Amino acid sequence: SKITLTVIKADVGGSVGHTDVHPELLEIAKEHLKEKGKMLIDFCVTHVGDDLELIMTHKGGVDNKEVHKLAWDALWACAQRAKELKLYGAGQDLLKDSFSGNVKGLGPGVAEMEFEERKSEPVIIFMADKTEPGAWNLPLYKMFADPFNTIGLVIDPSMHQGFKFEVYDMIGHKKIIFETPQEIYDMLVFIGATGRYCVRKVYTKNNEIAAVSSTQRMNFMAGKYIGKDDPVLIVRCQNGLPAVGEALEPFANPHLVAGWMRGSHNGPMIPVSIEDAVPTRFDGPPRVCALGFQLAEGKLIGPQDFFKDVAFNNARKKALEIADYIRSMGPFEPHRLHLEELEYTTFPQVAEKLQGRWEEE
Ligand code: 13P
Ligand code: 13P
Ligand code: MG
Ligand code: MG
Ligand code: MG
Ligand code: MG
Fold first, then answer.
1. Which domains does the chain have, with CATH numbers?
2. ipTM of the complex
3. Residue nearest to atom 9 of ligand 1 (CA)
4. pLDDT over threshold 60, residue 226
5. Does the beta carbon of 181 lie inside 6 Å of ligand 1?
6. Alpha carbon distances (Å) from 1 to 57, 209, 341
């Protein structure tokens, strides 16, 4: 029977500022899942920066009400303690007071997939802080469509036919499926625009699920700009799918993503271990962590903290150099995001104040 892998995450309060999750909250979440999570096969609680991450396996399928309620209640319990500790932005991502069957639209980010567990089932959970769902577009393209990243597309008979990408329009609320490699030029028109179009799922040509990302965009969910949703991504590996090292390889070159300070800046995504996922410099730069698990009848065997590897040291060094460089631009674009993408803005007020002083030309 099929296994469901569900990752639900939220920022329920930062310590200190937006840098980290208080260890007490991690304990509360673990206890909650242990005591109330009878429907789970296994779980792992972790964090990347100020985002609390619940990784869960079960047999309930995607959008499972019981599992979503369990996660919601765990996050809610953490938010209550965060309020007592007066942590920063306590309850920030829990936008509604009550649960209504599914955490989607309530604030937390969700990525989940249901599949028949293979003879060996290596999976990677990518988790990022100080960025947005579009941050996965470039790495997903490289993993599943770029032969310079993934040699399996060239030399593995089980991958040679390519993949299908489901792209979601976060503003128009529409989706489309692109076939790769046939349609990569068309697809890149959209997925290169990371603030609007997200790669939400990748399938094999036989419709086997290969990757799923969280594509909530909180600023539009609540009708006003609440914040960029620090995203998660699940990737299955090996045996007709990218090798583990092919899935990790895109992060060896730190690409620029939107987020960072006040959710209003472009900056390099730096791959780090969970221990180093405490974004501090200018509240960043944006972090990405990758935890690997082997599934065994739904049990999470692991985790392996992939970006601990010294082989990512040069990526880190490069990211820090890019950070120094782009920081020197201060409040100028393209370090600062363009007006429509700013998480904080004084634009309407300042424009209003100066209205009478602009002269027609
Ligand atoms: P092994 O020879 O270690 O199994 O590795 C095979 C492989 O696919 C590496 O990407
Ligand atoms: P988070 O989205 O991680 O809470 O960060 C927000 C922010 O304003 C950082 O400067
Ligand atoms: Mg925060
Ligand atoms: Mg910590
Ligand atoms: Mg965050
Ligand atoms: Mg954010």
1. 1-116 (3.30.70), 118-350 (no CATH)
2. 0.86
3. 243
4. no
5. no
6. 13, 16, 43
